Amino acid sequence: MDSSEKPVLYSYFRSSCSWRVRIALALKGIAYDQEPVNLLKDGGQQFSTEFQAVNPMQQVPALKIDGITLSQSLAIIQYLEETRPNPRLLPQDLKKRAQARMISDHIVSGIQPLQNLTFLKQVGGEKKLEWAQRHITCGFQALEQTLQHTAGRYCIGDEVSMADLCLVPQVYNAERFKVDLAPYPTITRINKSLLELEAFQVSHPCRQPDTPVELRA
Predict the structure, then answer these.
(1) What are phi and psi of 206, to 5 degrees?
(2) Residue 30: how many CA atoms within 13 Å on its side-chain side?
């Protein structure tokens, strides 16, 4: 494992998939360089020949680390967990570990793809907002019920887990699409607690190298 070079994260400031990885890197104290990939500029820089050489799927994030290039946020996070296990992002208890993975997949596979840029382009026009709201709401209704059985301060008890890294960016997206969060008190409470943590703050879309000036905080 070649760990002599600093990792490089290919990221877009508002990409929820990229944000998950930024949180993991921050929690684990891993210094890295960032290469912004603007998903809107020039028809989408992810479609460039240069970036396709990094990730043939033409999606962010991608992480160059230890002499390899990884894509897909959960695969990246789990690699970081296996190679740099402290602090841990998957509970030691096997049942809780399975729950963390379940909630992560609920968000990553069941909610986020249905309101990402690719889908919204296909929906088009004035229907984008309605489409995003409908699918986020449907997913949050199920997620709220699940979290009522698993949550403590965070998604799985009182320790930050991979599930939390997925939750916060999804709530951010819900707010962007003006979803009413009042019916989801558990989601809202956990999100508020997580946003108090430094790793979630430094990785926030409003504090990235490619964040537009008008969106910085």
Answers:
(1) -80, 0
(2) 30
Q: Residue 208 and residue 19: Cα distance in Å, rounded? A: 10
pLDDT 10s digits, 176-210: 999 999 999 999 999 999 999 999 999 999 999 99
CA nearest to 197, candidates 148, 161, 150, 157: 161
How far apart CA 50 and CA 160 sit, in angstroms, is 36
Residue 51, classed as helix, strand or coil, is: helix
Q: Report the predicted TM-score, pTM, of the whole model to 2 decimal places.
A: 0.93
What does the DSSP 8-state code read for residue 195? T
State the Cα angle at 78 between 72 and 53, rounded to 5°: 35
Query: Rounded to whole angstroms, how far apart are CA atoms 207 and 149?
Result: 33
Tokens encoding 4: 């002599």
Residues in the chain: 217
Residues 55 and 10 sit within 8 Å (Cβ to Cβ): yes
Neighbours of 118 (CB within 10 A): 11
Closest residue by Cα to residue 43 from 100, 93, 117, 141: 117
Residue type, 152: G
- What are the DSSP calls for 122-182, one per residue? HH-TTHHHHHHHHHHHHHHHHHHHHHHHHBSSSSSBTS--HHHHHHHHHHHHHHHTT---T
